[in-house]
Amino acid sequence: MDRLTYFPGCSLKDEAKEFEISAMAVMKVLELPLVEIERWNCCGTVFSLTEDDLMHQLASIRNFIRVQEAGSDEIVTSCAMCYNTLKRSSLFVNHAEERLEKINAFMDEEVAYEGKVEVRHLLEIIRDRIGWEKVEEAMIYPLEGLSVAPYYGCMLLRPRQVGIDDPDNPTIMRDLIDALWATPVEYAFQAECCGSYQVVDHRELIVERTHRILSSARRAGADVVVTSCPLCQYNLRETQSELKEKIPTYEEMPVMYFTQLMAVALDVDSGELPGPLLARFSVGEGVGKGEG
Amino acid sequence: MARKELEIIEGLWEKVEELSGQNIFACYQCGMCSAGCPFTDEMDMLPNQVIRGLQLRDWNTMDCSAMWICASCFSCQVRCPKGVDLAKLMEAMRQIYLRQQLDHVSIDDMTPEQISKLPQIALVANFRKKTG
User: Fold this and answer.
1) Is A14 within 8 Å of B120 when comparing Cβ atoms?
2) pLDDT in the model for residue A279
3) Which of A62, A70, A216, B111 is 20 to 30 A from A210, alpha carbon to alpha carbon?
4) Residue B85 sits in a domain of what CATH number?
5) Which of chain A's residues have a Cβ under 8 Å away from the Cβ of B117?
6) Chain B residues touching residue A10 (CB < 8 angstroms)
7) Which residue in B21, B77, B118 is closest to A159 by CB distance?
8) What CATH number belongs to A141-280?
């Protein structure tokens, strides 16, 4: 059986455990299991945007060396931030002989990175290598009646060179939602930034972003919002309690990972699902399986 | 405020261009970046005004809060009709500070409760962007 060389990233081992649990379970059923690379390290979280900065590419490149050691030339991740950082690092050094030479000379404790590792996001793999039809065939509980708003955020789509879909009109998550027989929700803020790491020193800004994004999704009829980024997930989920304090009538919007939506439909372990979703909907008998 | 203490180095404007790899004079001020930026409400200068300031070598530009509010979401980058990567310019401006050891945030100013509430993905990303 084919398998994928999988890079989890730090969040999936900690506050985003449900992302990994559901991704693992789903990919096993889809017969393309995720096999974690050995001795991986943090990707660096954000891509360094200055032209002279080779140092901050090292974290990504060490992971590419691990992939090389595993005899693969592809690294697959489901975290949108890891995807963006790894992908941009690969474009920065692959086929850039001078940069590669410098980096390899600096990391002389490692075997040389050959510059051949390709970075892919799990959604791309599901679209291009498995196909929506196969996802639909594997479905046990169709999600009919559930309106799902995809939230792409930034890192899956921008910049264009690394985007897995059109940056202004992405359809990849809508197609996935369609394949699971749920109703995809179109709304204005699906690819607008959630505020990202500004949550550390400008938390009030994130509360405002969350309000805009989730209210827009709700007005468009969404029952739930799906994400692919542990930071978007944290921002959109955790700042809702602060929103409720400000606006007493604010109604909580459940937010979960796209792999959890798939896990519910495919009747495999979804990890912990958002409470309000369980309380308000019973789609097939799938919702709630694998909780906790 | 650390921001006030920036040492004006010779060739600062050229350094911003060099670090970002961008030609600031490619910008013809159409304003598309500011139209699409989700954070303009919080900024003291609009993104297009930041580039204009860089073009005019206006020192006030190097003191703007906008560069620290920019979250590198790349909305401006994908929409710029002239292919100017404004996110890279903002990063270069931040780097001018950070390379003079002028950090914009400090973990010492945060309470243990604040830190424990935040996921590592937010903390690491923030410190990568706002500390040297």
Assistant:
1) yes
2) 59
3) B111
4) 1.10.1060
5) 238
6) 120-121, 124
7) B77
8) 3.40.50.11810
* Mean pLDDT to the nearest integer, A271-290: 62
CA-based nearest residue in chain B for residue A9: B121
pTM reported for the whole predicted model: 0.95
Task: Indicate the DSSP class of residue B100.
Answer: T
Residues of B in contact with A52 (CB under 8 A): 18-19
The Cα of B90 is separated from the nearest Cα of chain A by a number of Å equal to: 9
Q: How many CB pairs under 8 A join A and B?
A: 113
Tell me which chain B residue has its CA closest to the CA of residue A167: B78
Per-residue three-class SS string for chain B: CHHHHCCCCCCHHHHHHHHHCCCHHHCCCCCHHHHHCCCHHHCCCCHHHHHHHHHCCCHHHHHCCHHHHCCCCCHHHHHCCCCCCHHHHHHHHHHHHHCCCCCCCCHHHCCHHHHHHCCHHHHHHHHHHHCC
* pLDDT exceeds cutoff 60 at A286: no
Report domain A4-122's class: mainly alpha
Of B21, B71, B119, Cβ closest to residue A15: B119
Task: Tell me whether residue B100 is in a domain.
Answer: yes
pLDDT tens by residue, A199-256: 999 999 999 999 999 999 999 999 999 999 999 999 999 999 999 999 999 999 999 9
The closest CB to that of B125, out of A45, A192, A209, belongs to A45
pLDDT band at A284 (very low <50, low <70, confident <90, very high): very low
Q: Which tens digit of pLDDT belongs to each residue from B73-124? A: 999 999 999 999 999 999 999 999 999 999 999 999 999 999 999 999 999 9
What are the angstrom distances between the C-alpha of B125 and each of A58, A165, A239?
16, 24, 18
State chain A's mean pLDDT as an integer.
94
In a domain, B93, yes or no: yes
Neighbour-count burial for A169-183, b at 16+ CB within 10 Å, e otherwise? ebebbbbbbbbbbbb
Q: What is the number of structural domains in chain B?
A: 1
Is residue B85 a part of any domain in this protein? yes
Chain A CA closest to residue B20: A50
Judge: B122–A197 Cβ closer than 8 Å, yes or no.
yes
- Across the interface, whether the CB atoms of A50 and B88 are under 8 A apart is answered yes
Domain ranges of chain A: 4-122, 141-280
Q: Which strands, in side-by-side order, build the sheet including A4-6? A: A34-36, A4-6, A74-77, A118-121
Check residue B124 and give its pLDDT.
97
